[in-house]
Amino acid sequence: MAARRLDKSISGLTGSVKVPGDKSISHRSVMFGAIAKGTTSVTNFLLGDDCLSTIACFRKLGVSIEQKGNQLQIVGNSFDGLKEPADVLDVGNSGTTIRLLLGVLAGRPFHATLIGDESIGRRPMTRVAKPLAMMGADIDGRCGGEFTPLSIRGGNLTGIDYHLPVASAQVKSSILLAGLQAEGITTVVEPSKTRDHTERMIRQFGGEVEESGLTVRIKGGQSLTASKVEVPGDISSAAFFLAAAAITPNSELLLKDVGLNPTRTGMIDVLKEMGADITVMPHDTEGYEPSGDIIIKTSNLKGVEIKGDILPRLIDEIPIIALVATQAEGTTVIKDAHELKVKETNRIDTVVGELAKLGASIEATDDGMIIHGKSHLKGGIVSSHGDHRIGMMLAVAALICKDEVFLERDEAISVSYPGFFKDLYSVMK
Ligand code: S3P
Description:
It is a single chain. The protein is α/β, with parallel strands linked by helices. It folds into 2 domains: 4-20 and 232-426, Enolpyruvate transferase domain (UDP-n-acetylglucosamine1-carboxyvinyl-transferase, Chain, Alpha-beta prism), CATH 3.65.10.10; 23-216, Enolpyruvate transferase domain (UDP-n-acetylglucosamine1-carboxyvinyl-transferase, Chain, Alpha-beta prism), CATH 3.65.10.10. The chain has helices at residues 23-35, 49-60, 95-105, 126-135, 142-145, 169-179, 197-204, 235-247, 266-274, 311-314, 318-326, 347-357, 388-398, 420-426, and strands spanning 4-6, 14-17, 37-43, 64-68, 71-77, 89-90, 111-115, 138-141, 147-153, 161-163, 185-189, 209-212, 215-219, 228-230, 252-259, 277-282, 291-297, 305-306, 330-334, 361-365, 368-373, 380-383, 405-408. The strands form 6 sheets. The protein has a 4-stranded mixed β-sheet. A 4-stranded mixed β-sheet has the order 4-5-3-14, covered by helices on one side. Strands 6-7-9-8 form a 4-stranded mixed β-sheet. α1 runs parallel beside α2, α8 runs parallel beside α11 (318-326) and α8 (235-247) runs parallel beside α13. The longest helix is centred in the first third of the chain and has 13 residues, at 23-35. It is globular and about 60 Å long. The site of shikimate-3-phosphate has 10 residues, from α6. It catalyses: 3-phosphoshikimate + phosphoenolpyruvate = 5-O-(1-carboxyvinyl)-3-phosphoshikimate + phosphate. 3-phosphoshikimate binds at residues 23-24, 28, 168, 170, 316, 343.
């Protein structure tokens, strides 16, 4: 496939962008709509490839899902309404789909086979298979159950007390979805707080979940009731525009209706610490998920250290933060980010490799990276490596490169942001 030539003849970014719906919340809206009783309606659903994979999987499980533009109507009939699929369930590129789906299927009395693309085939699944097996599910797969293809036969589940070895919302959510079907209480303790969209959605659908500090507790056998889900804009998509405006001269952007769940806003905190000219205006009417508008302008930035408990709050934003750091005075050190190695690509290697090609001063460490700013980026041929967030980061990098940039495998961007280039071109002046 031909590489995309990225436009760089701009004098700045101006105007407003309404980024598409949040990916994590969109996935969960389909899943909760399917396991609740009644008709759930969803607005501003993300029509990215990952969320479309979730729809396709739940249709194969017998759930009626009607889609008109970015609105969905899901007819749920509780966990018992799910049927044994006649075909394999293909999750495509989506880690959230496969890991949360395993939690749903863990308590279903039937067999299913789950497959995905080449990237999914490299991502660790024992982190969910192990606790689900402790609860009573029968899961197997390639390399002792670590990789797809996976097969699962659900069983009668019993609640467990589980300390997560890694901070992962996908693993926590999978266990909570199994816990809803288990006998007794299921307790999950996280090493650091991760995104809490699942907990919020359980409440939105009439269920109860107890949270105290890093402990989440759920009682099995609860029934959920259909709801109306309004998906806020994805802060992880807005992140590319926040970064673009901060590092491109003569820029000012307004990002509208962005999700501001505090478990996701780590990048805003980091941008403020770097000295960015950013104003966050939360909306007054907050439902289950807070949202608001953000204004950001070209900024003089300085390097920072990013480590510890903030990591889960910005884990998906590390690629774009690394680019921002190339334009900050001084050194930025990113630590405690081992999880980057098991994302859609090994994001330590892909970020460092691609930004180095453009002339950044960046080095990989065992648990993150070190970036020395400020560098003058040149141009060249770079690749997304099939990773949507690497592709968007490189497209933003092109805005400040001296020479032309060609992006290979740009099609990966449709995983989370199908209209990305249209939105980006609309604010280039
Ligand atoms: C997600 C959790 C995170 C994140 C992913 C979406 C979710 O993954 O990186 O993009 O929706 O729960 P981990 O749970 O593996 O950290």
